[in-house]
Amino acid sequence: MEHVHCLIIGSGPAGYTAAVYAARANMKPVLYTGPEPGGQLMITTDVENYPGYPEGIMGPEMMEDFKKQAERFGTDIRMEMITKVDFSGPVHKCWSDSGAEIHADSIIIATGASAKWLGLESEQRLAKNGGGVSACAVCDGFFYRGMDVAVVGGGDTAAEEALYLSKLCPKVHMLVRRDEMRASKIMQQRVEKAESIQVHWNTVTEEILGGEQVEGMRIKNNKTGETTEVPIKGFFVAIGHKPNTDIFKEWLTLDDVGYIVTKPGSTVTNVPGVFASGDAQDSIYRQAVTAAGTGCMAALDAERYLTEREII
Ligand code: NDP
């Protein structure tokens, strides 16, 4: 059994930023990277909207920089996963996949969220090699300006992404699997008004076409059975996200979807000494820069918590 002052779970922008702040505050943080070290940015190609990189940077390279910065101040980074927690006492107990038991005075959760995918082989192949399939229009839409694209989904995210893309692209095909959208009325009205958005009702994706790059899609009307091939260059999946919070649900207050509920304006959860940052607690912004911001907040909240109790 090992006792630490500050355990950080997760290694995206939130986790590494929390580590930089915690290490510089002499909290001797230990960071468990989780199953996907670097988080969602590891499957992104160019990042052009993170301040400080005027020429843009590749997602994996940026995460390597985050990691180096956290290491520079002495963060103990472990390429392992926390698989179980027990938040019943004042000291929080965690177990790793290698069987280690860690007791922590404070915990910073930065486990992120994962985009949901359709599950097509072509989708995974073209998403991994930056071939034109993405789960974030705000991140990647700019690369498809002037080109025809598609957005899958009928919720607020899909509506928002379609509207965002409609300002960059001559034609946005929005694929909705039922004859109505789940999105709020106001978003639906905006989609209706946008001339460049064409909504395909009762429509599912059979295949994304293209070898190295998206060239089109084969879609099927699930009422009539009719299939159509449509040329596009970008394919955006917006069918929801799943926060990676399953191991905490017994202890922390989560919303209906599974996002950790924090006290507004802070990273404080319902368990004293446990702080939540990044996409695990943010269903709205989900950007690298906002995740980094809440990672910083979590480290400052944890430092205050430990100082008030004279632990550090
Ligand atoms: P939602 O769960 O609300 O919507 C998911 C959409 O994707 C639904 O239309 C769903 O269809 C569709 N879908 C799910 N699986 C598939 C599939 N396999 N194939 C095709 N379509 C599929 O997720 P969102 O990310 O849109 O929103 C999450 C939450 O965040 C919501 O509460 C939303 O209101 C909120 N939000 C708010 C925003 C705002 O206020 N500006 C912006 C973005 C999100 P079906 O309806 O048939 O199940």
Provide the CATH superfamily of the largest domain.
Answer: FAD/NAD(P)-binding domain
> What's the multimeric state?
single chain
The total number of structural domains is 2
- Sketch the topology as an H/E string, one letter per element: EHEEEHEEEEEHEHEHEHEEEEEEEH
Q: List ligands, each type once.
A: NADPH dihydro-nicotinamide-adenine-dinucleotide phosphate
CATH architecture grouping of the largest domain: 3-Layer(bba) Sandwich
Instruction: Let me know the average pLDDT.
Output: 96
Helix content: 25-40%
Q: Which of globular, elongated, flat, extended, rod-shaped describes the shape?
A: elongated
- What is the CATH first-level class name of the largest domain? Alpha Beta
